[in-house]
Design brief:
The chain has eleven helices and eleven strands. It is an alpha/beta fold and about 325 residues long. The strands form two sheets. It has a six-stranded mixed sheet. Helix 2 links the parallel strand 3 and strand 4. Keywords: ATP-binding, GTP-binding, Nucleotide-binding.
Length: about 325
C-alpha cells in the first residue's frame, strides 16, 4: 500500500526522552530547557536504573546519559532503550546532540572545561575517542541535533517547539524521512510508503548521492507514478492537517519512508516542505531526515520557522 496511517491510543503513556551526545554539544542546555518545559530531569543516573526511572517517573521524563554515566557502555544503553521502546505504556525517544570536532575544541578551550575522557594533554584525541564510543547511540537516535552553527536561543526554540506542549503558534508539523529497515518512527501520526517508486540506489552514479541532490530529485520525479502519488499525498495532508488544527492538536509528524531513507523519501519530504506551507494552514514546520542525520549527512532545518519572541539567552 502507498499509505499507512497509524492509530493513536487514547490511553496516556509516559513520555521518556533519552538525551545523549558529545561532550560540549549542548546536552546540559537541552536538559535545562526540558526542565523548564515541565519534564522531570535526571542527569547521568546509573544505567541499571533506567527501567526503574522510566516506570516511577511522572508523565514526562528526560534522562541525560553520556560517557560520565556510571557503568556507561554504548551498546548497553542501546539495549536498554530498545527494551523500553517495546513497552506499550512508554513512548521513548533518543535525542543525540553533536557538533563538529573543531567547534567542540573551540568550546572547551573558551570555557577551560576538562573533557571527561582527557586527564592531561590535548583535548582533540578525547573528542575523537568519544565520537567513536558513541557511534551506536547516534545510529539509534530518533532525533539528531547538530549545534555547530546553532545559537543557544535557536537551540532553546527548537527544543521548545519539538518537545513542548505547543504554545500559541498553532499546529507544528515535522516532516520526516526514514528507512523502513531501521524501524517506523514511533512519534509519527501519518506514515507514507514510497518504496514503490524507482530506486536511485541501483544507479551507480546516483547511489552515493541523496535526495538533497538535484540529480536524484530529477530521477525520482521522472517515475510516471510520482506526480500521481505526490498529488494524492498533498490532497490528504491538505484535508487532515486543518482538521488537526480544529481539534486543537499542537504537534503532528508526517513521515515518508523508503528502503534506505536516503533518496526517495528525502526527495518527497523536501518537496512537501517547499509546497505544503502554501496550501496547509499550519504554524512552524521542520524537516528531519532521520537516516541522513544518523549518518552525519544532515541534521534538521526549519521550513517555516517559529517566532523568535522571548528567547532565553544562554551558552550552549
Amino acid at each position: 500500500m502507498v499509505l499507512i496511517q497509524e492509530g493513536r491510543s487514547s490511553l496516556k503513556v509516559r513520555q521518556v526522552l533519552i538525551v545523549t551526545g558529545l561532550s560540549g554539544a549542548g546536552k546540559s542546555s537541552i536538559l535545562r530547557v526540558l526542565e523548564d518545559l515541565g519534564y522531570e530531569v535526571v542527569d547521568n543516573p546509573p544505567l541499571h536504573l533506567l527501567e526503574a526511572l522510566a516506570f516511577k517517573a511522572g508523565e514526562r521524563l528526560a534522562i541525560g546519559i553520556d560517557v560520565r554515566s556510571r557503568g556507561f557502555e554504548a551498546h548497553q544503553v542501546v539495549e536498554e532503550t530498545e527494551k523500553l521502546k517495546r513497552l506499550s505504556n512508554i513512548n521513548l525517544q533518543v535525542l543525540y546532540a553533536t557538533a563538529e570536532p573543531e567547534i567542540l575544541l573551540r568550546r572547551f578551550t573558551a570555557t577551560r572545561r576538562r573533557h571527561p575522557l582527557v586527564t592531561s594533554g590535548t583535548i582533540l584525541p578525547g573528542i575523537e575517542q568519544e565520537m567513536a564510543l558513541l557511534v551506536p547511540l547516534r545510529a539509534c537516535a530518533d532525533f539528531v541535533i547538530d549545534t555547530s552553527d546553532l545559537p543557544a536561543p535557536e537551540l532553546r526554540q527548537l527544543i521548545e517547539t519539538r518537545f513542548g506542549s505547543g504554545a500559541e503558534e498553532g499546529l507544528t508539523v515535522a516532516l520526516m524521512s526514514f528507512a523502513y529497515p531501521a524501524g517506523l518512527p514511533r512519534e509519527a501520526d501519518m506514515v507514507f510508503d514510497a518504496r514503490f517508486l524507482r530506486n536511485p540506489h541501483y544507479d551507480p552514479d546516483l547511489q552515493p548521492m541523496t535526495g538533497l541532490d538535484p540529480a536524484v530529485v530529477n530521477y525520482v520525479k521522472s517515475d510516471p507514478a510520482y506526480d500521481i502519488f505526490f498529488g494524492y499525498l498533498t490532497d490528504i495532508l491538505n484535508l487532515v492537517l486543518p482538521r488537526f488544527v480544529e481539534e486543537g492538536k499542537k504537534y503532528a509528524t508526517v513521515a515518508v519512508g523508503c528502503s534506505g531513507g536516503k533518496h526517495r523519501s528525502v526527495t518527497i519530504i523536501e518537496e512537501l516542505a517547499r509546497l505544503l506551507p502554501e496550501t496547509a494552514p499550519v504554524g512552524p514546520m521542520m524537516v528531519l531526515h532521520r537516516e541522513l542525520a544518523r549518518k552525519g549527512f544532515s541534521s534538521w532545518r526549519w521550513a517555516v520557522p517559529p517566532h523568535m519572541e522571548g528567547s532565553h539567552q544562554e551558552d550552549i
